[in-house]
Amino acid sequence: MDSKLIPYIAIAVVVAFVLIQRLRARKAPSSVVSEKIRSGATIIDVRTAGEFAGGSYPRATNIPVDLLPSRTADLRRDKPIVLFCASGARSARAARILKQAGFADVVNAGSLSSMPR
After folding, report:
1. pTM above 0.90, yes or no
2. Which of 61-67's residues contact partners 24+ apart within 8 Å by CB, and which partners?
3. 65, 83, 85, 97: which is the annotated catalytic residue?
């Protein structure tokens, strides 16, 4: 193998990894989110405390995404968790954090505006 190709191969591997992560982080369909909420899911707003104070979703608990790793012990593992934020980016990150911590039933609902009413 030509040693000049190694950096290009490394870049291609990183790009592929990032694309796969983004595909996994896509928000769930609204029907899935609605069903999880109807079944008693824990609803978590991962926006900042200031954003949360400005209004949130009914029954939502505020755990900013940066605090989530230290708050996983506060969450029940036996019920679904629905996550949302302002745009869906932080909730996607939060979903990855919880899944890596062993939570099985985690749903990224995307943005507050996409939450079911």
Report:
1. no
2. 65/90, 65/91, 65/93, 65/94, 65/97
3. 85
